Amino acid sequence: MKIVYFNDWRLGVLKGDAVVDVMAAVSDVQRLGPHDLINGVIEHWSAYKTKIEDAVSKGAGVPLGSVTLRPPLPRPVNIDCMAVNYMEDGTRSEPAPINAFHKSPNSIIGPGEAMVLPDVPASVFEGEAELGVIIGKKGYNIKAADAMSHVFGYCNFIDGSARGLPPPGNVFYQMKSRETFGPIGPYIVTADEIKDPHNLSVKLWNDGDLKQSFSTSDMAHKIPRSIEFVSACHTLMPGDILASGTNHRGLHAFQDGNRIEMEVEGCGRLAITIKDDLKRTWPRETRLQRQEKGLEPLAPQASGKYAKG
Whole-angstrom Cα distance, residue 132 to residue 216? Predict the structure, then answer.
């Protein structure tokens, strides 16, 4: 099942090229806002799955192209992001030590929205294409052997980053948790539709140019181990997102006016834009392309405020 939020935060399900409104099927979910609704549906999925399926089978829906899609998880309790979690196409001799960081729920945006580059002296802004794993069942100290039973589904996730901010060493919070730096969507795909989450293609395009292209088979610490690791630190809640990491070789500068599209196999295509009021520019090469030229992997700012030299 492919679950969406659309228009004025109506919960829907994709049925071919149509969106079927299923709000009536979940009307008894206690909520203060759309975040409570989807999190409640995920938490009590066994009670709502059949009701939603019935609503979808009976509903004609409206054309997908006629609606405005919203982020399918508007405010997760937790966004946990795995760090350096790929073998980089075999260029790493061994996995990096398992590590993760928290990203602010306020970073979430949805399809068609803009990632806004703030007025800060970042050396470069990048975005990492990742498989987002959506937690379906509350758990603390989850064992790897039990972890996949806690997975509700999957989505596209872009981990926005403001690299090189001062002071040195004060890294992840101000680099990762900025407003709009967590695009997701266009929908949630329930776990039953993804045969093997460790064998999916992940692609990201910038203005139509393919920049990232890798497989989740290259993941160093697989989803069960990642869930075990983060849940040893804090309780995972229904509707939380575990971002599983990226292959860094295709990372490159995001800048004003870019149209970014990403697609994890089976999860649809997420499209966003980049907005920078300062109109800063960077070279367009990927980290790998720069390394092949003997250059530093991170592109230096070429023009605009904070450009050096």
Answer: 11
Backbone phi, psi, residue 116, to 5°: -100, 125
Residue 186 preceded by cis peptide, ω within 30: yes
Residues in the chain: 309
SS3 content of the chain, % helix, strand, coil (to 5): 25, 35, 45
Q: How many CB atoms lie within 10 A of CB 239?
A: 26
- Interval 18-35 mean pLDDT: 95
Joined together, the tokens standing for residue 142 give 């989850």
Instruction: Delineate the domains of the chain, giving CATH numbers in brackets.
Output: 2-70 (no CATH), 79-292 (3.90.850.10)
The DSSP H or E segment spanning 175 is helix 172-176
pLDDT tens across 58-117, in order? 998 999 999 999 999 999 999 999 999 999 998 999 999 999 999 999 999 999 999 999
Q: Which residues are CB-contacts of 146 (< 8 A; sequence separation ≥ 6)?
A: none
What percent of the chain clears pLDDT 70, i.e. is strictly above it? 100
Please report the DSSP string for 268-294 in residue order.
Answer: -EEEEEEE-TT--B-----HHHHHHTT
Q: What is the DSSP string of 15-81?
A: ETTEEEE-GGGGTTS--SSHHHHHHHHHHTHHHHHHHHHHHHHH---EEGGGS-EE-SSSS-S-EEE
